[in-house]
């Protein structure tokens, strides 16, 4: 049996990579980050960073993968020698750790979907407060995230074509349909336009240094960059594909879903007179209250639809996160795919237990004394994504320009795109990857580390 596999078509790859990109990062994290960082101004910064800097990084990542045709470790190792192989291992570690907390949040979404659609929860008195009770309960967390991990593993076992590609082809279009239907509804609500104004009319006085590096962190997370997920997916892409075009489509799909999620959530929030600055709870606390106000029948349909959407989005992302270490085990350790998947899924699930217990179930995990009394879930998410992804991106661009050589990258991109060499976009990508990204991402990484561990406002 072919253990590696490949995507059967351009659209298959695009949907799988866009499926990886579109996830909780777009529908859960992006709205609350935007809400906390001043609305429209954050949206603009985010879009600018995505196109100017993240797009070239994405092209670089996919090129490395397609050039070698191996997992993240194998790719760095082959192109740069053992010393650079560590960067692949770093990515694999980040993937495992990100998945460990991501799966917990995905489990919440799954639990919400089931409870809203199939129980009488909406008739409960204070539905909005449900979140508080729900995330504290260890067994709820355990069961729902176990289910989610199981579904993820089940798809990844089926391999690249039969599992990942097929699942993405069904789930991605469905996601768009649900999203648009919900937006149409939310825009008809009273005061919806206040939400639209907050979201689309920028107030530039809101922009600070923090807006900038939060925007960059968010863009990296949302596009699945900085840890080799796209190296891994790139390794399943054939040489006739135009990487530039595919990466552009993936970027567009990703920002569209983030943009649309904002367009759904802010009108809902403002129509209920709520504050947009509620942080991670925004989607889980504010929205259920709103669904309840719609009455038991409509609330069930709209609320159930929303959380189903969130589950779909999360699932195509958990698949890609699990695929990174799985590809490593299959390519490097020659462990059969099926065994690799189940071993890793179990490992990730166990590593997620502190995050599951961190929302009030167990005190030591809920408030880590060495990390400003934040929760274990915050710790894992901030260290392995907010900090590690831009840092990983910085190291990757250093690898491309100082070790692999941007000439070789150009050659790889020119496969499937004969007019690439000598074009303006080639100069732009090479310049950005050689000079801008290493410096900018390095600087942002340092700022984020200082901020997360010591608090930037205390220093400046
Ligand atoms: N991009 C996904 C989201 O927005 C999360 C994700 C999936 C991811 N794979 C990744 C993030 C790889 C970083 C790296 O929800």
Radius of gyration: 21 Å
How many beta-strand segments? 0
Given as residue ranges, the uncertain stretches (5+ residues, pLDDT < 50) are none
Overall SS class = mainly alpha
CATH class: Mainly Alpha
Please state the second-level CATH architecture: Orthogonal Bundle
* CATH fold title: Hydantoin permease
What order do the helices and strands come in, and which of them pair?
Blueprint: H1 10-21, H2 24-36, H3 40-68, H4 72-80, H5 82-118, H6 130-136, H7 138-157, H8 159-187, H9 192-200, H10 209-222, H11 229-234, H12 243-271, H13 282-293, H14 296-332, H15 337-351, H16 353-356, H17 363-366, H18 376-404, H19 406-414, H20 424-454, H21 456-459
Helix pairs in contact: 1-8, 1-12, 1-14, 2-10, 2-12, 3-4, 3-10, 3-12, 3-20, 4-5, 5-7, 5-14, 5-15, 5-18, 7-8, 7-14, 7-15, 8-12, 8-14, 9-12, 10-18, 13-14, 14-15, 18-19, 18-20
The chain binds tryptophan.
Give a quick set of tags describing it.
460 residues; mainly alpha; Hydantoin permease; 21 helices
Structure notes:
- The chain has 460 residues and is mainly alpha-helical.
- Helix content is 78%, strand content 0%.
- The N and C termini lie far apart (58 Å).
- The mean pLDDT is 90.
- The structure holds tryptophan.
- Tryptophan is lined by residues 20-21, 23-26, 98, 221-222, 224, 227, 229, 317, 320-321, 389.
